[in-house]
Design a protein that fits this description.
Elements (H helix, E strand, L loop, with lengths): L5 E6 L2 E6 L10 H16 L5 E6 L4 E3 L26 E5 L2 E3 L1 H7 L3 E5 L3 E3 L21 H10 L3 E2 H6 L5 E3 L4 H13 L3 H14 L4 H16 L2 H12 L9
Parallel strand pairs: 2-3, 3-5, 4-6, 5-7, 6-8, 7-10
Antiparallel strand pairs: 1-2, 8-9
Length: 248
């Protein structure tokens, strides 16, 4: 792995995506957002990569949430299924703190393996801010537990996360990476077409909050604005000729 904000490592059919700022508790800033967006895009472009394993570097935090000195207001770009359409399975491995945007990231994972020392919180109400992406949590765990997390801003431990259905398994920290990779590898061994179809079908029935829907729309508009066809359309307009669109 290279020393970049988000590291990408290929292990057979598994793409390991690592938030890579352990000295800063993997706090989310613009570089992390851009790195995650690039990682999800790369993952979806490579048909040999069937499952993503999402982790935080170091043993203190998956991520301690947004860097409050440089809050990224385009977090949607980093979220699989929002900023980048991801229909391949995603496994998250969480050790230490999983705060704010970290909960949004893990909420969007299909499988979550938690170390015994994992701690989950969404404390934005305590600082007078929220982007709203977390609203989808109420469609993924019991409503009142989701509201407790959002309105109280308190922390729940790994065992409680497992009890309410946010985590699939709780394991000793020493075996977290091995266990999560095992789950990812086992999923990758199965037929990819039905796996992706089932994820798409589940996505169709999963409730989405306003910010999540807006993020999906914004990502699609951004893609149009960056397209070859838009550049061609502008050029043809100024050249007073018929545009030659390529559908890309």
């Amino acid at each position: 792995m290279t020393e970049q904000a988000v590291a990408y490592c290929v292990e057979g059919p598994v793409a390991r995506i690592v938030i890579n700022r352990p000295d800063r508790l993997n706090r989310i800033d613009a570089a992390i957002v851009s790195g995650l967006e690039a990682a999800w895009t790369r993952f979806m472009a490579d048909d040999t990569q069937r499952v993503a394993l999402l982790m935080g570097a170091g043993d203190r935090a998956f991520t301690a949430g947004a860097d409050l000195s440089a809050v990224p207001h385009d977090l949607y770009r980093a979220i699989p299924g929002v900023g980048v359409a991801v229909d391949k399975p995603v496994v998250a491995a969480v050790q230490g703190y999983c705060v704010g945007g970290g909960m949004v990231l893990t909420m969007m994972a299909d499988i979550l393996i938690a170390a015994e020392d994992a701690r989950f919180s969404y404390p934005e109400v305590k600082i007078g801010f929220s982007g709203g992406l977390i609203a989808g949590l109420a469609g993924r765990i019991p409503h009142k537990i989701a509201m407790e997390l959002m309105l109280m801003g308190e922390t729940i431990d790994a065992r409680r996360a497992y009890e309410v259905g946010f985590a699939n398994a709780v394991v000793p920290a020493a075996t977290l990476e091995r266990t999560a990779l095992d789950w990812a590898t086992r999923i990758a061994a199965h037929a990819p077409l039905p796996s992706r179809m089932l994820k798409r079908f589940v996505s169709d029935v999963m409730p989405r909050g306003p910010t999540e829907r807006a993020g999906i729309a914004r990502a699609q508009v951004d893609a149009i604005n960056a397209s070859v066809d838009w550049a061609e359309g502008r050029a043809a307009f100024f050249d007073k000729r018929t545009p030659r669109f390529e559908g890309r």
